[in-house]
Design a protein that fits this description.
The protein is of the alpha/beta class. The protein is built from 15 helices and 15 strands. The mean pLDDT is 95. The structure holds nicotinamide-adenine-dinucleotide (NAD). The site of nicotinamide-adenine-dinucleotide has 28 residues, from helix 1 and helix 3.
Length: 427
């Protein structure tokens, strides 16, 4: 009998496919044995690709989880508000989980998942993939080495990029917080997790401002039509037109993310049809989006450590910039480049540069997507000590507390929220 770890994948969209591709790169460690999605064509495509037995293909996560335990690990890759139901049912069945973030948009549900995992003795690893990238691992290593002394403050900037905002947070899955979750949780729980991880302290208080300023009807250029393909007069000039954002990429033969979100079938015909009829063909000024298009957050951590964070889509390209400031030096990191500047004197340049990019950066999220799968398998196989980068649910909740408290603050005009009070009121 094979002693490979068996995996069941629930939710066969973008993330379910991404993690499965990385799992497939580790054939000695694991095998995908079961899958589920409510869209039959996704189940068929996925099942055929990974050779999943017909009897192990299911028409929903609920149906898969109604069976006796079929695998060791469940990858929960459904949308935000389905995570709780799928995670709780899977834990009851005895699965370890790779659980997409956010754990849940409701804090009490996050806590319930963590409690049940503890009671059952099961691992729940939350997909805070940044912790598994070489860039952030190196930053954490430098901070922990004491190179910059005690961390005093952190400045972080998430550049979402105008086209990514339009794709995911105006036209796409995360445009409406009632269907998914607030953007500060959805997109930036990663950043809140990194602030917490690098500060090495728990949060004490949070305040936040932000709003939706641009992607709304009042900002539409004159004569814009509700869909790009309805002879919109701005078709060739608007930076958000489907021609520039999707069709031109298709004509160039590029069908990887985000193209595969628009159409999993990589042909021009399928793409054109999806844009004519689906959500990604809508004018960015006439969608049902309600999430913010910019937000700032201030966090006070224990021992007076402070952090400020700025999330904005009004940038040409995406990427995260972070500066960690300590009593003996600072660290600046952007796009895999880290510069360590110790405080010695001002007569010469004492800075040290680290380039953290390596072969794994070819994989999603700077290697983080592959890293999390590899480390989860290693953890369950007892292969090596995976260190502090693993994002167990009990630890990952802190990022959700900060993000949810920030949203509460934003909705209340920037009111100061003490995180302890937020937890008490929402547990
Ligand atoms: N870790 C990261 O960096 C990262 C990045 C993007 C998205 N995410 C998270 O991953 C999750 C999934 O995002 P995605 O982009 O893959 O979305 P997606 O829409 O591409 O995939 C979700 C899939 O779930 C399926 N589904 C819906 N109901 C189901 C049910 N009851 N049972 C089984 N399947 C069901 C859908 O049909 C779809 O195929 C979201 O919660 C998102 O927040 C995380």
């Amino acid at each position: 009998m094979s002693n490979k770890l068996k995996i069941a994948v629930i939710g066969l969209g973008s993330r379910g496919n991404a993690y499965s591709e990385y799992a497939a790169l580790l054939p000695d460690e694991c095998e995908i044995v079961a899958c589920a999605d409510v869209l039959p064509d996704r189940v068929k495509r996925f099942g055929d690709k990974y050779g999943v037995d017909e009897k192990m293909r299911f028409s929903s996560g609920e149906e898969l989880l109604a069976q006796e335990q079929l695998a060791d690990i469940a990858f929960i890759c459904t949308m935000d508000r389905l995570h709780y139901g799928h995670a709780m049912a899977a834990l009851e069945r005895g699965y370890h989980l790779l659980l997409e973030k956010p754990i849940s948009p409701v804090l009490s549900e996050c806590i319930e998942i963590a409690d049940l995992a503890k009671k059952k003795g099961l691992e729940v690893i939350v997909c805070h993939v940044l912790r598994y990238t070489n860039e952030y691992r190196k930053l954490k290593e430098l901070v922990d080495s004491g190179a910059i002394g005690d961390v005093v403050s952190i400045e972080a900037h998430e550049r979402v990029a105008y086209w990514h905002q339009a794709h995911s947070f105006v036209r796409g899955n995360w445009s409406n917080s009632k269907r998914s979750s607030p953007m500060i949780l959805q997109k930036s729980c990663h950043d809140m997790d990194i602030l917490y991880w690098l500060a090495g302290k728990k949060s004490v208080a949070v305040s936040s401002f932000g709003s939706l300023t641009h992607f709304k009807a009042s900002e539409a250029p004159e004569g814009a039509t509700e869909r790009c393909t309805e002879a919109c007069p701005h078709y060739f000039t608007c930076p958000y037109s489907v021609d520039k954002n999707y069709l031109e990429w298709g004509r160039r033969g590029v069908f990887t993310w985000p193209m595969d979100v628009v159409s999993q079938v990589p042909t021009m015909e399928a793409l054109e049809e999806a844009l004519r009829t689906g959500p990604y063909g809508r004018c960015v000024y006439y969608c049902d989006n309600d999430v913010v298009d910019h937000q700032v957050v201030n966090v006070l951590f224990e021992d007076g450590v402070t952090a400020n964070f700025n999330m904005s889509p009004f940038t040409a390209e995406g990427g995260r910039k972070i500066t960690v400031m300590g009593t003996k030096g600072d660290l600046e990191s952007f796009d895999d480049d880290i510069v360590f500047s110790p405080f010695i004197d001002r007569f010469s340049d004492h800075s040290v540069k680290y380039k953290t990019e390596d072969v794994e950066d070819a994989f999603g999220h700077g290697g983080g997507d592959y890293g999390i799968v590899r480390d989860l398998l290693a953890l369950l196989n007892g292969k090596y000590d995976v260190g502090s980068s693993l994002t167990r649910v009990s630890d990952s909740i802190e990022s959700h507390v900060i993000a949810l408290a920030a949203e509460e603050s934003r909705l209340n005009g920037g009111k100061l929220i003490r995180t302890e009070d937020y937890i008490k009121a929402n547990s």
